[in-house]
Description:
- This protein is mainly α.
- It contains four helices and no strands.
- Helices cover 68% and strands 0% of the residues.
- It is rod-shaped and about 155 Å long.
Amino acid sequence: MKDWNIKGAHFYSQIMNQACAFLGLTAEETTEAEVHQAITEAGTLDSVRTQAVSEMELKMSGFEASLSALTEEVATMRGQMSEKDKAIEALEAAALVAQQASTDALGVIAAKEAQIKSLSGEVANLKAAKPTEKTTPVDENIQMPNEGNASKGGGRSISSKDLANAMSGRTN
């Protein structure tokens, strides 16, 4: 190991500042002993590379595991999407069948409404053509109370009580 002469070194300050920056230390607050300790702990460039490669391999294996899990999840989701697509197609087919049934039912309703209008017209024509009897035949079996009460116009008048009794078939 070479013994370096600090007094004869022209770049000592620059080398120490760069060493601090390389090791992640603050040059203004770091002593020579701390720089020496950090360099000793850091090891050689080959050991730093080996450590960095191992850390990257560890991270990569973690990423690969995450990627595998995500790939599996995507495959599951695609399967679910396929099932949902099939369910949607089945529902669309059912909707078309229901729509056709609704259209058929509306056609039947329209035909029945036309038939009702036609039959209503026929009934109206039959009523208009047939003379209607506006008088109801008198039931001769009903005894009218107070037969002596005749009005001036020749009609009979009875009380509502007597009428109710006559309608129910009772007499006083």
